[in-house]
Design brief:
TonB_C; 8 helices; transmembrane helix; TolA/TonB C-terminal domain; four-stranded mixed β-sheet; alpha+beta; seven-stranded antiparallel β-sheet; TonB/TolA_C; transmembrane
Length: 416
């Protein structure tokens, strides 16, 4: 059974710019208000006595605000960085040839108190003969009391590489979490989070701070012509993602001005192509705007293929009438919606071998994962889909049915 990524996960063109312009340009104006301005009270000790009258020097003006106005008592959102620790295999350290860092994201919590301890997340895995991380499993974390998107941990590890010819069976890595409040975060961290596939719950605060110096809150007007870089001509390693975050103005005639890169993952070819594309955009004439923002991203040139099925892998039993799943009952596998989104975001393919039993009346039960590579996420996705399946009714059911599910992505066409 082959599963292709659906349109809501990864459109047919594997290199997809931000097609929904309004959803991604994030131009925001600064908002001023009393909620974030500290009350400045004069102390009697600072009063100046002059001819019997007491005058109080005026308080200094408050610093300019470059962040969103938050309700009283609500903490600002936090930029989240998941930092990989030392990799241990059979108790000894192992150095990767390339260790992919998880995407930046954000979180937020309500109340005045920050968490006293930062959570950590552990993965176990093996290294195959080709130097790939396989059999990636996530250890159940301790719930920290607020949401942190950790769905890129396993895909990032699957995109990493180790020296070939040195397989390992019992390896582990722990990721630690670092928080930085959005108002205090370096701009580079904000650009990285804003350009990530999942910016996180504090996304609006991030975009608002990045657009605080502009007046492009509602966008530069209706687009008349939008341009995109020639992504297929830009090299990008499989399993990785590069991005360019740009700022620009629009004059009263609808032409873009002052287009420049303000944040980047350092792919020079993408940066140059992004500036060139954005300079050619045109918008409806009207009020001029400044400080508008937009970002492009580039996925890996080709998908990372799933590891090869082992020779002793259980065989598919679709030929048995009592095990033949009715295709109409597994639409998410056939239309690609079951494809694990975090792996599609890095263009990583996988497979799952699912075992199940059937009843004479067509019900499917005892669904279980027999194998999944390169990570358990593929097995979970396939198991959830097949749990909803049915087989054709018959005189008898069957124990020990097996279905092999392959998750595939479209290949990129070479540049002409």
């Amino acid at each position: 059974m082959r599963v292709a990524a659906g349109h809501d996960r990864l459109p047919p063109d594997p290199v997809v710019p931000n097609r929904d312009y309004r959803a991604h340009q994030r131009p925001i104006a600064t908002h001023m208000g009393l909620a974030r301005i500290p009350m400045l009270l004069s102390s009697p000790r600072t009063a100046i006595e002059s001819e019997g009258a007491v005058t109080v020097p005026p308080p200094p003006p408050p610093p300019p605000l470059h962040g969103p106005i938050l309700p009283s008592g609500q903490r600002p959102g936090e930029i989240v960085r998941l930092t990989p620790g030392t990799i241990l295999c059979a108790g000894g350290p192992v150095s990767p040839t390339h260790l992919e860092v998880p995407f930046a994201t954000s979180t937020k919590w309500f109340g005045r108190d920050a968490p006293t301890t930062a959570p950590s997340y552990a993965l176990t895995f093996a290294i195959d003969q080709d130097g790939r991380a396989v059999d990636i499993q996530s250890s159940p974390p301790i719930f920290p009391g607020f949401f942190i998107d950790t769905t890129d941990l396993a895909p990032a590890l699957a995109a990493s590489r180790f020296a070939p010819g040195m397989p390992q069976r019992t390896c582990g890595i722990t990721y630690t979490v670092a928080f930085v409040p959005v108002p205090d975060a370096p701009l580079a961290s904000l650009y990285a989070a804003a350009s990530a596939p999942v910016p996180g719950p504090a996304a609006s605060e991030i975009y608002e701070r990045l657009g605080a110096d502009g007046d492009c809150a509602r966008g530069p007007g209706s687009p008349r012509r939008l341009n995109y870089p020639a992504f297929e001509a830009i090299a990008q390693a499989s399993g990785t993602r590069s991005w360019s975050f740009l700022s620009f103005d629009v004059d009263a005639t609808g032409r873009t001005q002052n287009v420049h890169v303000v944040g980047s993952s350092q792919n020079a070819a993408l940066d140059s192509a992004s500036v060139k594309a954005l300079r050619g955009n045109r918008y409806a004439p009207g009020k001029a705007s400044r400080g508008c923002t937009f970002h492009f991203y580039r996925l890996g040139n080709q998908p990372i293929a799933a590891p090869a099925l082992p020779a002793d892998a259980p065989k598919d039993t679709d030929a048995l009438p009592a095990c033949a799943i009715d295709p109409k009952t597994i639409p998410s596998l056939l239309n690609g919606k079951a494809y694990p989104g975090p792996f599609a975001a890095r263009r990583i393919e996988g497979y799952a071998i699912i075992g199940f039993d059937t009843a004479p009346w067509g019900a499917v039960g005892n669904v279980r994962v027999l194998a999944a590579e390169p990570a358990a996420g593929f097995g979970q996705a396939a198991m959830e889909a097949i749990s909803q399946a049915r087989v054709v009714e018959g005189d008898v059911g069957h124990r020990g049915c097996v279905s092999r599910v392959q998750f595939r992505l479209p290949k990129e066409k070479p540049a002409e």
